[in-house]
Structure formats: C-alpha cells, structure tokens
Amino acid sequence: MGTQPASSLAVSVAVNGEQIEEEVPARRLLVHFLRDDLGLTGTHVGCDTGNCGACTVHLNGEPVKSCMLLTVQVDGAALTTIEGLAPDGELTPLQRAFNEHHALQCGYCTPGMLMSASALLERNPHPSEDEVRVALQGNICRCTGYVNIVEAVVAAGRGSA
Amino acid sequence: MTTVTEQPTTLKRGYVGQSLPRREDKRLVQGQGTFFDDVRRHGMGYVHFVRSPYAHARILSIDVAKALELDGVYGTITGDEVAISTDPFFEMSVEPGGLIEDYALAVGRTRFMGEPVAAVCAATRELARDAADLVEVEYEPLPALVDGEEALKNEVVLHDDAGSNVVWSGVFSWGDVDQALAEADHVVKIERLHFHRFASTPLECAGALVEYDRGTQEWTIHCNHQMPGVGAIWMAPSLRVGIDKLRFVTQDIGGGFGNKICLHPQFVVLCLLARKLGRPVQWTEWRTDQHTANAHGNERTFLAVEVAVKADGEMTGFKVRAIDDCGAFPRYEPLGCIIWAQVTPGLYGWRNIQVDFTQVCTNKSPVSPNRGYSRMQHLWLTERIVDIVAAELGLDPVEVRKRNYVKAEQMPYETPNGCVYDSGDYAAALDLALDLIDYGSIEERRREAEGRGKLLGIGIGSTLDSGTNNFGQSTLLNPDLQFSGNNEAAAVKLDIFGEVVVTLGTVPQGQGHETTAAQVVADILGCPPEQVNVRRGHDTWFNTHAGFSGTYASQFAFTGLGAVKGAAELLREEMVQLAAFVLQAPEESIELAEGMARVKDGPEEAALPFMALGAIVNANNAFLPPDFNPTLNHRYVCRPYFGVVDTEKKTGQLTLTYATQIHAAVVEIDPDTGEVDIVDYAAVDDCGVRINPQIVEGQVHGATAHAIGAALSENFVYDEDGTLLTANFYDYHVPHALDMPPLKTGAMESPSPVAPLGAKGMGEGGGGGIHCLCAAIQDALRPAGKPIVYDSCNPPHRVWSMLRDPGSTRANVTVVSK
After folding, report:
1. At residue B387, does pLDDT exceed 80?
2. Could you tell me where in chain B the CATH 3.30.365.10 domains are found?
3. pTM of the entire structure?
4. CB distance from B18 to chain A under 8 Å?
5. Could you read off the pLDDT of B685-714 as tens digits, one per residue?
6. How many CB pairs under 8 A join A and B?
7. Which chain B residue lies closest to A88 (C-alpha atoms)?
8. Please, which contacts does B604-610 make with residues 24 or more away whose CB atoms are closer than 8 Å?
C-alpha cells in the first residue's frame, strides 16, 4: 500500500455545464475520456504529437489540446467542448460565419478551430487578420488553406458574419 | 479577392452557378458529424498493429503468447495466418511487377519501416497498444534499398518472386522526337530533376469498424475508404468471397486527397479478426503510422531530358527517362506509369514526345494516389523544362509560354497521344494571373527588394486538372487487364410526403456533394434545394453504386453529377406523366416549379404539390391504370463515352475534361538563410461551369496550400537505413495559418462541351503552386550565379546550398546550339 501508483482515480469535472463524477483510468487521455467515455465525439484526434489542435477544448475558459492532458489533471475543472458551444442548437455568430464564408470542407479540424477561435473572440472581440492567424497557428487544416477560416473569424469579430 | 471572367454559356442556370452555403456545415460546426471513429458497437475490440522497426528484414519468428496472457486481450493475428486464410492481392502489372505477392500482413519478410507484421485486438485502445508491445518478433535485418535509381541495379532485390525491383517499364513515343531534336536550333539537355515524396496527410487518419455477421457471412465496414468500389475488387478475392459479402459504409470523412484509396491490406486484417474473434473490431490509424506506412505520393526522378527548341522559341518536343519509386509494394500501381499521359504535352503544343518510363520498388512506404496523382509530377517536369529553357536561352517565361501554349482557337485539341483537351484559353488565364500579381511592376519591386538585401523572383505554374479517368488506360500497361471506361450511380426518388431524396454513389470527403447535388436536382425538379435531401455518405448495401464508385480523379462534376442529373431527369419525366394523367392535361402543358407540378398558365387548382404525387404512387394508387406504373424512384448510371484505347500506338482518350490552372507567385529570398517568403500569389482556375463558385474557390485554396507546403517544407525523408525521419507533424511541417500567404484567386469559365453540365472535374489542381514556386525561386536566385532548381522541394537549406554553390546545379544543364 502506498508503493503502487494508483491505476485509476475519481474525477469530478463539469463538462458543458454538467457535473460528471467518474472513476477514470489514470492513464486515460482527456480526449479519449471525452470521446469514448462521455460520447462527446465532436472533439477529434488528428495527430499523436499535440501539433494539430483538432482536439481543442476550453479548460476553465482557456483553449487546451485535450490530447496533451490526462483526464485526472482536469479534476475540479470546468470544460467546454464543441457540443457546448451552442447547446440550444442556435448557431453562434462564429459558427454561422464559418458556414457563410465556406471556412470548412471536410469539417474534421472545424471543432478545434472553433474552440480556438471562440477563445480568441472571448479575449479579443475584434481581432485583426494577423491576430487571428497567430491565435490559430496551433490548429492544422488540410482542406482550406486557412483563407476562409481567417476571413470567417475576422467577420465574426466585426459582427458582420 | 476574386476576379471572374465569364465566357458566354448557353446553359440555363438557376441554383446551379450560385454560391449557396453548404448544407453539410450545420452538423459539422456543432461537432455533430459522424466520422468512422465515432461509430460504436457493443463488445467491440480495438486493434493495434505490430509494425516493423526495420526497412528490410527477414522475420524469423513471432511470439504472441505474452500478449494473449494480458487481461482484456481478445486475440491476435500474424502474417502466417494471413498467408493461410487469404490470397495475395491482385496485381495490375505485367511481369515482373505482376509476380509480386502482397498480403495483408508481412509474410516472412518486412519491406518497409512500419509495415504491419501482426495485429492485436483488445478491450481498450490502451490495452491493445500494451499488448502489441508484448508481441515478440525476431528479425534478421537485411540491407535497405532507399533510392529509385539504385534499385535498377538489383543488388538488393525486394521481391524474390519478381526477381527484380522493376515493377513495370515501357517506352512511350509519339511523333518523332529524334527528328525534332535533329531539326532544332537549340537542344537543351537537363541531366536530372527530382520530384520528391510527400502526401496530403488528411487530418483524419484512416480506419474502420468492421462487423461480421456469422449468419450471412457478410462483413460491414464502417470506414473512410474513398474508393470503396475498387477497394472491394481488391479485398473480396483476397478474402475468397464474393464482392456481395462486403458492405462499405461511409459517413463524414475527414479529408482523403487519394490517401484513403489503398486501405485494403489493413481492412482485410480487420475482416479476418472480426470473423476469428466473433466481435466487431475497430482500428484507428495513428498519425505516425499514417506517415510511415500508409500512403505517400509517387517520387519520380527525370533523367536525360532533351528539349528541341526553334530559334523563335517554339519548342517542338522532348524526350526523358523517368524512374518512378513506388515504395515497397505497387498497390494502386503501376497505374501511375500511365496516368501522367493524360497530360502528356502539358499545356503545350509539343507534338514529338518520348518518355522511357520505369517504376521500381524500394524499402519505403508504398505510394497511393495523392492529389494531382501522377499528372502533377509530369506537369512539374513540363514547367521545369519551360523555365529552364527560357532561362538558358534568354527567353521571356511569359512570352515563351504564350508562344507554346495550345491556343483557344485550337480547342478541342487532340494531343499527340489521342487525348482531347475539351476547352480553355490558357493565354487569357495567364494574363489574368499576371494582372492579379501586378506583373507590370515586377522589375520595380525587384529593385526595391534588392535595396532591402532580398532577392525577389516571379514564377508561373501552368497546369491541367484532368478529370474522369478512362480505366481503359490500364490496358496500355497490361493488355490482359479487363478494365475500361468509368461509371458512377445515383438515385433520386420522390417520397410519400413529397420529399425528394437523393442517394449518391460518390464518397465525398469535404467536397460538398450534398450541397451541389441538391442544386442540380432543385433546378431539374423545380423546387427549392432545401426540399432535396441528399443522403450523407456511401453505402453498398443499397443499390446506388457502380464498379468505379468513389471520389477521386476529379470526376464528381462529370460522373457524380451526371448520374444525379440523369436520375433526376427520369424522375421529372415520370412526375410530368403522372401530373398529366391526374390533371387530365397534355404532358407538354405540365411544368414543375415551386415544388408543384402544374398546368402552365392554367387555373390555380390545376396544380399538384409534390406531396400529392408522392402520396398517389406510394400510398393511394388503386386508380392508376394497369399499364401505367410510375415508381418515382430512379437509379441512373453515368457512363461516359471514351472509345477504345489503342494498345499498339499507346493512344486514346484517357480522360474527358481538362480544367486549367495558372498560378503566379512572387517570392523574396533572404540570401543569408535561404528562407523563401511568398509576398504575392494568384491562382486562376477554369473548370468550365462552376456549380457552386464558393466551393470551387475553396478547392483552389486547398490545392494551393498543399502545393505551397510541398514546395517549401513537406518531405518524407529517409536515412540510408530506410528510417523515415519525418514521421509526424513535428518533423513533417504542413502549412499553418501563419505560413500561408494572402491568396488572390481568379476564375474563368470555359464550359466543357462533353460534360453533362458543362462542368469539369476540379479540385486536384495539378500542383500549380509547386511549379510556380520552383520557377520563382529560380528567378530570384538569378543574380546569384543562375542556379537551376532541380528538386520540387526547396526548404531553406536547399535554397541556401543553391546560393552557395550554383555551379553544381548548372552542371546539370547544357545547351547545344546550331
């Protein structure tokens, strides 16, 4: 007793406003907890090195890559995933801007992009194009060349989505 | 910024031609898409592959005992079991490539780093990975072969059955190149050019959830295969079952770009495990595995190029020896040995061309089609030829292009190998691209950059995106192959409450097929696109697919929408007949508009909403006479006409539509570091009628980003032992938001006279960005000793080397003038 590391731990975390209490394997990545245990499959996995940002969620309001965290690290925290961005089904101005500006093709990077972009708009409601590019540099898109993504985020910030 | 130069078209347009926002987006922006990894089944097991750490090794033994002892492990499979329970995959090549034995797992020998040698299935992803680590494999390393030219020596031979590393070789000769060279005023010789290995690396990795039904002995494969029709042709014989035993289901797919075509080896392993273990099995590829062991683009080396040039700058032809490196197994190959021939002369009027083509195996990842597949490599060659000839003979790169481009008035233009360029105005597209980058001010900008210590250069990349494959071209490689033509299916029905339901055979991965198909159907049926439900994904369970179903080779606009149009027109005809019968009016007086079938200019009550038509046929049909049996449910197969290829002369219509792209870039190079900064960029695309211009522009952006990444950073680099050095996104740098320059796009519309909607396939883009950046770098480096850009990938260290030692690149080129 005491010499063996715990193989699982109790985790208490608020996910999209709902309090979750679960015994979680100590090694489980947050992204796999969200996808496989909670069924929140909107958060995606695009790499295994923390480069692509498809798994971005908000941890206490800050964008983080959920593949780079163990679930046990978020004990006591509040998380928002893509499913929590517009919980009542009414798209946010940012989501609408992505549609209107054709800022997505396959849609696989989109949840992560939206989480990074919405965090940016939260702290900087009217970002310039350069500020958007800096904020999204940790999110890879292989379809769009980022042109329309940047345009959509700037437009959402201008309120002209 | 978008500039559109529209040429006259006779096509009547309604919703077609409008940039309607995509209907796919609503679910995708809410995280409500369904990708294969989102699919769950009770009791499913997770699969992890045990992969070879060696590029080339004999497998002495595999011991799975320790893995099986681990709690939660459901089972394993090894190459020996695969060799007993399956047959090798069908090979398309003649000998020697045709003798290669390719199984779903390595059997006895491993031939590339990351090749799967065994697989483990367990209750969780983590356990499967742990168990894979417990599988003990004893290897005897063998010398690794990592160079295509080296492979020709056959000192190390990968496949003993073939007895040679050559997969396929042959000489293509059209016109008389020797005479053209003899009659030329200048012959420009280039010893070696190299097109590097990279891939589009879709953000969603490959994978599948496979279920096996013991009662019916059928497999259901929930997956992201982008060409299930052909996937099944590989898999079913290998599994020794009929093709009807394989059901492919796709929903949302996170990008494909050709890289999700050669998934049959992994999928066969999953099928075997699902049957053996009696439970659904799921495999999601890891990013590092995708980079090391799934799908690279074809690497190609061009040797002994000789170009015939007249005194006035007219080029009359060229000859070249091409060595294509397809990696360890020729899975989709040797098709790349012929696909390039769709664009044999590029955009140019060259009539005399000889290509001596050889494809070889090396101890590297197998290749797979990759955006611009095989044509991109060849078009890079044609553009390198033009810019090297221009630089060496002191010709203007714009003028020399215009002199040699096929002219608008020559359209439709038959190439020396019998392909027909359907329409286009290359010179006008070039002018538009040059306007967008303000070509007139280049010399002034060059001087201004010089003042800041920077080298400024401009480059042009002219490409064709050939669309709609004629699979008959495979018989130019192997006359015994029984493939030709092409086909795609779609079904359109009117349901009981008036819903228009469209089912596609295509397998979109972000191209917006649900939106564009709805636009086409809405125009034909006279209803708003919102009334048209285009079902997501592909499902071979239903009858809406054909032998070549899939989304690849820039053909949706032709075959995919051609099938949708055909099915919608059949439905329309029946709706008109039914309305005429019910309203007791002549058929020619019936129009479909605003979601109604009505008598033109008739009274208000002489109209039936779609709901009435759907209800009559489906639920209230007793009054219809016995000889009138409308179904309001139509399947149509679009089968383009190609004619038969001539296997003797190696000519024929290899593809049907040719979209044009002209890219122009202005770069600034820091001579101290070799870093390339793109300061201005324009891409002009002419794909005929644009069904949805916004979607077309999005494809242009994406293709440009892929090309910029490939030209400046993306490279699958191997060391001499065959270890991949760029196995993930740390080392394999794809463009991020900060890497992308502002893009200017321009569009022209030269409707295709052969395509059902005048719309040409597009999206692959022909690698225009690679060509124009290579040209721009060469132009910028001119003051530094005129180095020749000889490689398609030019990261800072290579540019720096060219700056330091231009002579070694110049030794590559000689000019013989008469």
Report:
1. yes
2. 1-9+405-470+655-716+737-807, 488-638
3. 0.97
4. no
5. 999 999 999 999 999 999 999 999 999 999
6. 179
7. B30
8. B607/B583, B608/B579, B608/B582, B608/B583, B609/B498, B610/B494, B610/B498, B610/B500, B610/B525, B610/B527, B610/B531, B610/B575
